[in-house]
Design brief:
The chain has 17 helices and no strands. α4 runs antiparallel to α5 and α11 runs antiparallel to α17.
Length: 443
């Protein structure tokens, strides 16, 4: 998320357009999403500590490559490598918590993890803005990647000394074909949607879109064949036959797309549309980040009281915050006041935490114990696919209206269209969670 606030600066420095900026975000997200389950299986088999440290080392190296990338295409490639490395790291965190804690301690640890991961989405933009404002050694946007190097080195040293090793020798085989066909399906949709508008919709974009259903069929066939052979596929189709699991997966995908699209679009609206500096853009998110963190720390207690109603209500509050932001932009004229923009973002932050942090736990708690483990991997994949897709889909909507210029009127119109799409996604999430509640009652 630290990258979002730097996108406008990256675009100016590397002389690149909106499509490449969207791919800088979505390329990382798709690679991350498609490697999560495989990374978890590798950790189960080879040792979670070992795979986590290997992923951390690879992520740190990829950060160096991103920091010195001389062009947008190479930056996108290195971001994909970063995403693959993150897919090795993150599953080991959840699995190690599951293996190292029991009962209330496990719930508490997962609660803190959810709070930290969620708050990082907002805090990353603040840190990114500060680094850009400092312009360390005249390097512009590059320190937002290079800052990972000292962090990574410290994490490697501390991790070698403190992290316990754990593994599951009987872990299922890795579904390589499932990962490849899922990645191909997503890429065949996202690439033409991201690059098509800017390049005038050449023939390859239509060929890609036409080929995506074929890749999707191959993915489903590979999952069915893998599961029938007694192994655990990337997305177990038998899990999707459970209505509760299907609705939970849909809710996660919808809200993640909403969040990913908004975080990408917000920084472009503030910087490209209203001339905010990276620091001012990041600081505009500070109240939202604080609101998020407060609710995230209370989530376990709130979930115990309200259950899945918290997720549905959080989605509605998120939509209210979006509508408030749209109203402020519509009334702002030529200059958008930062304090006025921050006020509805506080509401948005409250809803974001109330919906996102407990969503996975709420879905998994409503499934049979033998299905919860499978659902965790599938939901994590849906989360990252949604975040990546949101940047490309909502970003494309934004730029199709705003164009490539700096006309404030067009950016205002683009912001209103973007927030309308975002409100639709948030309301669809609330409706899906409400159906999830009914599915739980009728089981």
């Amino acid at each position: 998320f630290i990258v979002n606030v730097a996108l406008a600066t990256v675009g100016r420095d590397l002389h690149t357009g909106p499509a490449e900026l969207e791919l800088t975000v979505s390329g990382y997200g798709v690679a991350y999403a498609c490697s999560l389950v495989a990374g978890g299986r590798l950790g189960d088999r080879l040792g979670r500590r070992r795979v986590f440290l290997a992923g951390m080392a690879a992520f740190t190296l990829a950060s160096v490559l991103c920091g010195v990338a001389p062009s947008a295409p190479l930056l996108i490639v290195f971001r994909v490598v970063q995403g693959l490395a993150a897919g090795l790291m993150f599953p080991q965190v959840i699995a190690s918590i599951q293996a190292g804690f029991e009962g209330p301690d496990r719930h508490r640890a997962l609660g803190f993890l959810g709070a930290v991961v969620g708050a990082a989405g907002a805090v990353g933009q603040i840190v990114g803005g500060s680094l850009l404002a400092a312009d360390i050694a005249g390097m512009g946007w590059r320190p937002i990647f290079l800052v990972n190097v000292p962090v990574g080195v410290v994490a490697l040293v501390v991790g070698r000394r403190m992290l316990p090793e754990s593994r599951t020798p009987t872990a299922p085989a890795i579904d390589v074909m499932g990962g490849l066909t899922l990645a191909a399906t997503i890429a065949l949709v996202l690439l033409p949607l991201t690059l098509g508008r800017a390049s005038g919709w050449p023939a390859w974009t239509w060929v890609s879109l036409a080929a995506s259903p074929v890749a999707g069929v191959l993915f489903v066939a590979s999952q069915r064949r893998f599961e029938r052979s007694g192994r655990t596929p990337l997305v177990p189709l038998s899990l999707l036959e459970v209505r509760y699991a299907r609705l939970g997966l849909t809710a996660m995908l919808l809200f993640a797309t909403c969040v990913g699209g908004f975080l990408f679009s917000l920084t472009m609206v503030l910087q490209a549309g209203h001339g905010y500096s990276a620091l001012k853009s990041g600081m505009t998110m500070v109240p939202s980040a604080l609101a998020f963190f407060v609710v995230a720390l209370l989530t376990r207690r709130l979930t115990a009281r309200f259950g899945d109603r918290l997720v549905a209500g959080g989605s509605l509050v998120f939509a209210v915050g979006l509508a408030g932001f749209a109203a402020v932009v519509a009334a702002s004229g030529a200059h958008l006041n930062a304090a006025a923009a921050s006020a509805p973002l506080v509401v948005l932050g409250l809803g974001w935490a109330a919906a996102m942090v407990p969503l996975m736990g709420v879905v998994m708690a409503g499934l049979p114990a033998e299905r919860a483990g499978l659902a965790g991997g599938v939901l994590s994949t849906a989360l990252q696919v949604g975040l990546a897709s949101g940047a490309s889909i909502v970003g494309s909507v934004l730029f199709s209206v705003a164009g490539s210029g700096v006309d404030v009127g067009r950016w205002r119109e683009a912001t209103l269209v973007m927030t309308a799409v975002e409100c639709g996604l948030a309301l669809a999430t609330a409706a899906t969670v409400w159906r999830l509640r009914r599915a739980a009652v009728s089981r």
